TrEMBL record, chain A:
It is a peripheral membrane protein. GO terms for biological process: mitochondrial electron transport, ubiquinol to cytochrome c. The gene is QCR7. It is found in: Mitochondrion inner membrane. Keywords: Electron transport, Membrane, Mitochondrion, Mitochondrion inner membrane, Respiratory chain, Transport. Gene3D superfamilies: Cytochrome b-c1 complex subunit 7. Its main location: mitochondrion. Belongs to the UQCRB/QCR7 family. GO terms for cellular component: mitochondrial inner membrane; respiratory chain complex III. InterPro entries: QCR7 (IPR003197), QCR7_sf (IPR036544). The keyword Membrane applies. This is Complex III subunit 7. The keyword Transferase does not apply. It comes from Coemansia asiatica.
From TrEMBL, chain B:
The gene is QCR2. Residues 44-181 form the Peptidase M16 N-terminal domain. InterPro entries: Metalloenz_LuxS/M16 (IPR011249), MPP/UQCRC_Complex (IPR050361), Pept_M16_N (IPR011765). It is a peripheral membrane protein. It is found in: Mitochondrion inner membrane. Its main location: mitochondrion. This is Cytochrome b-c1 complex subunit 2, mitochondrial. Belongs to the peptidase M16 family. UQCRC2/QCR2 subfamily.
Length: 123, 433
């Protein structure tokens, strides 16, 4: 119900034009890049869909993800930040997991649709 | 949302000239990008049809870098494509009452759908997607690799499959000698590696779409409107050394097997392999008769061991021979007796025996052509130019020259493969060929 509305707002040109300049500031303020993380590292991973998506990551992405997590835990424990030269660069902060989550979500949806399908006899 | 797409009216009366049985003149149509299409409309009152996508990229086209790729490519059939998930393909097949199968031979990989006539347009689309848009994702590769490993293990623990694989290896070495199965040592370890093999394999010149219960022209139109039409005719880089019969011995030591197997295989023409195997004589056609009149089966029955003749026809070679199976203590004697009988009775078979063999080969062929599977095989052969031994006419031609062929083939030097306790099996050069 809310999802289509959210999507319509997101795709609205005026809304985007207003938000765009704020977005980078917002991301910088949120601070995860200072710990060397990517946005997709922060997604809640305790759901079956995201677990499956993580399982489908290739070896390099998995290794990178684990490394970033460990480094961030360590920094957080010792109340430190990375030197600014090692902060996650905007071009590195790409969506490496979200496409897979979307793929798995669609598969689940398809499965549910087939499982609750009703058939009609052709006249 | 997931209702099957509206299907075209394929069951409607089709073009004027429809072929009801396979013959050398069955129509093979080439589409605009030279994909071969062959079909039999068959009985008009039957609602059944089948469509197959054939990729001429069986194990004989593998090299050291991609050994086993054909087996993996076969196992990737009907998996996720750009357009639909494998879950969806399978559910929709089930809703349509269709059966999906994938088969790999040394020359071809075949994906077959058996379905009702009105579902044919939909499944041509599915098969086109398989050829062009399979994703070969890594998470699917894990499943596929498990399946492949299981099939390979099954083949390795089946002595008769092993002996026939060994026969090819001994007879042809590379090319046709490649194993049908991906071994544990296969260099194929990722979906990408399978994709690379598929990309070289899926070239229009290597593809055929064959169908039964469908008119050939109608099928060609469906193929032209599927994704297959997007393939450009670039030459495929796959190649296979032409088959030369090298001869040799392979001994596979397996101490756990209670029964030893010993295969003798001779080089023959590709069309004459079937009638020659019939001449070696196998199953008696008279029920409950264990002996029959064929000299080899009579010998086997009285001595108490098993024989099973085999024949293989390929585009450029044929193999004919038999597997002798006996407890390890008897295998040596059994093989020696059989080898003697082949030289004595089969190489110079009498007119009556030749006629019996020709008739048996003819019946076998006719029987096979009456089945959907046999028709698919024959149409594949016609479409891809692997013609010999797929039609009744070619069996007849070969049968006419049978006694001269037998004299030539069964006096040549065979290859020998043994599975079991190798100390007890004779070497092929002691058998007198």
């Amino acid at each position: 119900m809310l999802e289509p509305i959210a999507r319509a707002v997101q795709n609205n040109g005026v809304f985007r034009a207003i938000c765009r300049p704020l977005a980078n500031t917002w991301v910088n303020l949120s601070g995860y890049r200072r710990l060397g993380l990517r946005y997709d590292d922060l997604l809640r991973e305790e759901t079956p869909i995201i677990q499956e998506a993580i399982a489908r990551l290739n070896r390099d992405e998995t290794d990178g993800r684990v490394y970033r997590h460990k480094r961030a835990f360590q920094l957080s424990l010792s109340h430190q930040e990375l030197p600014s030269s090692q902060w996650t660069k905007p071009q590195d902060d790409y969506k490496y997991l979200q496409p897979l989550i979307e793929e798995v979500r669609l598969e689940q949806e398809e499965r549910d649709a087939f499982n609750s399908m009703t058939t009609t006899v052709r006249k | 949302m997931f209702h099957a797409k509206p299907l075209g009216k394929l069951a409607a009366p089709l073009s004027a000239r429809a072929y009801a049985s396979v013959s050398g003149s069955a129509p093979v149509i080439s589409t605009a990008n030279s994909i071969k299409v062959a079909a039999l409309s068959g009985a008009t009152d039957s609602p059944l049809a089948s469509v197959s996508l054939v990729i001429n990229a069986g194990s004989r086209y593998e090299t050291g870098e991609n050994a086993g790729a054909a087996h993996f490519l076969k196992a990737f059939g009907f998996r996720n494509t750009q357009t639909r998930t494998s879950f969806r393909t399978i559910r929709e097949a089930e809703l349509n009452g269709a059966t999906l199968t994938a088969e790999a031979t040394r020359e071809n990989i075949t994906f077959t759908v058996q379905c009702f006539k009105e579902a044919v347009p939909y499944f041509v689309e599915v098969l086109g997607d398989i050829a062009v848009a399979t994703k070969f994702t890594e998470h699917e590769f894990k499943d596929v690799a498990r399946l492949v490993a299981f099939e390979s293990l099954g083949a390795r623990s089946d002595s008769s499959a092993r002996v026939l694989d060994g026969v090819h290896q001994a007879a042809f070495r590379g090319g046709l000698g490649n194993s049908l199965y991906a071994l544990e040592s296969s260099p194929i370890t990722s979906g990408d590696a399978v994709r690379r093999y598929a990309e070289t394999a899926v070239a229009p010149g290597r593809l055929a779409v064959v169908a039964t219960g469908v008119d050939a022209q109608e099928l060609a139109n469906l193929v032209s409107s599927s994704r297959l039409a997007s393939l450009t005719s670039s030459a495929s880089t796959l190649s296979s050394p032409s088959a030369t019969f090298t001869g040799g011995v392979q001994q596979i030591y397996e101490s756990a097997a209670p029964i030893s197997h010993y295969a003798l295989a001779f080089a023959s023409g590709s069309a004459s392999a079937k009638p020659l195997a019939a001449l070696l004589g196998a199953q008696s056609r008279v029920k409950w008769s264990t002996t029959g009149v064929a000299p080899l089966s009579k010998l086997a029955a009285t001595e108490g061991f098993g024989i099973s003749p085999f024949s293989f026809s390929y585009s450029d070679a044929g193999l004919v021979g038999l597997v002798v199976s006996a407890p390890r203590s008897q295998i040596k004697g059994a093989v020696e007796k059989i080898a003697g009988a082949i030289q004595r009775d089969i190489a110079s078979a009498g007119a009556e025996a030749v006629q019996r063999a020709a008739a048996a080969a003819r019946v076998d062929m006719a029987e096979s052509l009456a089945t959907q599977q046999g028709q698919i095989r024959a149409l594949t052969g016609l479409a891809l130019g692997q013609k010999s031994g797929v039609t009744l006419e070619s069996v007849d031609d070969a049968a006419a020259k049978l006694s001269a062929e037998a004299a030539k083939v069964f006096k040549s030097k065979p290859v020998a493969v043994s599975v079991g306790l190798s100390q007890d099996t004779p070497y092929v050069d002691t058998l007198g060929f």
